[in-house]
Amino acid sequence: MSKHSPDADVAFIQALAELLNKNDLTELSVKREYGEDDSLDVRVVKQSNIVTTTMAAPQPMMMAAPQSAAAAPAAAAAAPAEDPAQHPGAVTSPMVGTVYLAAEPGATPFATVGATVTEGQTVLIIEAMKTMNHIPAPRAGVVKRILVADGNPVEYGAPLMIIE
User: Fold this and answer.
1) Contact by Cβ (8 Å): 123, 111
2) d(CA 27, CA 50)
3) 21-43 burial, b if ≥16 CB within 10 A, otherwise e?
């Protein structure tokens, strides 16, 4: 029998969400072991200023409340958003690696939303195999969106930013 309370788990998840926001993180995963066959898996992800939480636990009391029938279609309708990779001004990753928006921690970012960039200007760095690869702007324009967070992994072809 489990000796932890659902209220303690909710407080734990709220603390994780606060930690995510306070430290400017985009994702946090934690597994909390209470005993044999009793654990709490929590994954908190921030996407476009929205924090979502996923819980997986063997006890029914740990399950999240089901969405109402009216909320499910609304969420499904909001999901098919524009694919940034298909945008004509998308700058995509030429490699797999870790993206950095500035030359070093605490330094001024290479580009910010609303900034004007010139063709060939470094807009970010992708570290791959301990090599810092400067990614140039493929065209001159204004940075409309930055689609990656500093220090996050990126895949080949992933959209990094939109320049119009």
Assistant:
1) yes
2) 11
3) eeeebeebeeeeeeeeebebebe
pLDDT tens per residue, range 103-160: 888 889 999 999 999 999 999 999 988 889 999 999 999 999 898 989 999 999 888 9
Name the range with the highest mean pLDDT among 25-29, 40-44, 122-126. Answer: 122-126
Backbone phi and psi for residue 41, each to the nearest 5 degrees, phi listed first: -105, 125
Architecture of domain 86-163: Beta Barrel (2.40)
The amino acid at 128 = A
Residue pair 83/157 in contact (Cβ under 8 Å)? The answer is no
Domain map of the chain by residue range?
6-63, 86-163
